[in-house]
Fold Calponin-homology (CH) domain-containing protein.
Amino acid sequence: METLTFRRQLNGLTRVDMEEYFDDVELENLYQWIDRIPLTRPKKNIGKDFSDGVLLAEIVAHYFPKIVELHNYSPAAATKQKMENWYLLNRRVLRKLDLDLSDEVIRALANCKPKVVEKVLMLLRLQIDKNLQRQGRSRLEIDANFAQSMDTKETKKSQSAPAAENSQALVPVKTGRSSPGKLSSPRKLGKGEIPHNHPDRSSYHFEGKGYFDPAIYIYPTSDNVPRSYLEEKEMECMAKDETIRMLNSKIRRLEHLLQLKDTRMLDLQGQIAREQGLYYVTSRKHVVK
């Protein structure tokens, strides 16, 4: 399959180009990471969802809100507008993270070429980790804090809803009309935007299976164990799982390289044996003459 690798340039940027390698274990891990980030679109097809660059800008803004101006990136259906979004994102945002996309990669992203956006996201995650480390921060810590804040908001919302209904029933608001007053409506969501915990926010799938199931990482609370402690242990387990997957992937690569090395050594030994045999025959002929 076609995918991407990266190399360090003289100007310090990490250049992203097309290559011929892809690892399925890394892909599984990537989908789990994306499912933990709040995005304004439901997850359907990752290539099409990210083809205009808007969701990738949202991912960067999740970790570095000061370097991304989301209003500069409009949802687009035309390839030309998608590429303009990517060029702007590459110039103003990605290069600040020491990442630089080639024209070929940007064209492939805008045209929804399979497996391209996955590798770009993998490289982006790597650069995010490096830049957060320079600032003394952690990606997993940011994700954990976000999950905790969402849980706190949901808890407050569920607790305040019955109280609001009771207060409205007992003390109606005067509006100048005979009908009782109405509570103010919540914030209107933008076009295509859905709440983070909405059921339509499905996970990306790989070979027919979703790789991030929230039920795996949500544990029941008790009176004796604080919820914050459980969430902290949850993030530690997720970090260890991610490390294990990456190490297993590296092990498989090294095993493949060892096989190639052994094959090459056998070929060289065969060449040496043939050369030695030819030299021996030639020397015998010379002696006979």
Notes: Residues 1-5, 171-187, 207-223 have pLDDT under 50 and may be disordered. The first helix runs from residue 24 to 35.
